[in-house]
Design brief:
Layout (H helix, E strand, L loop, with lengths): L18 H51 L4 H8 L1 H4 L4 H7 L2 E8 L6 E8 L9 E8 L5 E5 L13
Antiparallel strand pairs: 1-2, 2-3, 3-4
């Protein structure tokens, strides 16, 4: 600031809340706490309903899997024709997918925490395990993480991309 220039006046501090305003603010907090409790209760009940119906769907998922298994090369065809997945597949990946017999998704008991996808393969020249899994988790803070089955490559095959 240059000499002789006046400082701009600061606005006065806000007046203290009136007693009625303070009480209203406290009541707003109490009402919001009740809303939060109801939202939490609703979330729990919705989760229980989702889990109930997921169990009821299981026989239908099983029947669908059996019907899908009757269609030769459906797995490889699906992945090769998927716009995003196909861009990630190399020639050897596609060859290995010819041995894919089924894919199953399973939600964890607490479905808010994640799910697992199991890829079932016939005996093949690429890897030893017949089931490869990928798990997706959400921690309490909502941060995602994942883990996969370690692939044990057969010695005659080079690891695919």
């Amino acid at each position: 600031m240059s000499e002789g220039a006046e400082r701009p006046a600061r606005p006065p501090p806000p007046p203290p809340l009136q007693k009625e305003q303070q009480e209203a603010t406290e009541q707003i907090d109490e009402v919001q706490n009740e809303i939060d409790r109801l939202n939490e209760q609703a979330s729990e009940e919705i989760l229980n309903v989702e889990q109930k119906y997921n169990k009821l769907r299981q026989p239908f998922f099983q029947k669908r899997s059996e019907l899908i298994a009757q269609i030769p090369n459906l797995g490889v065809t699906t992945f090769v024709n998927h716009p995003q997945v196909s861009a990630l597949l190399g020639e050897e990946d596609e060859e290995a997918l010819h041995y894919l017999t089924r894919v199953e998704g399973t939600e964890f008991e607490d479905i808010k925490s994640g799910y697992r996808i199991d890829f079932y393969f016939d005996e093949n020249p690429y890897f030893e395990k017949k089931v490869l899994s990928k798990e997706f988790h959400l921690n309490e803070g909502g941060d995602p993480s994942s883990k996969s089955t370690e692939i044990k490559w057969k010695s005659q095959k080079v690891q695919m991309s």
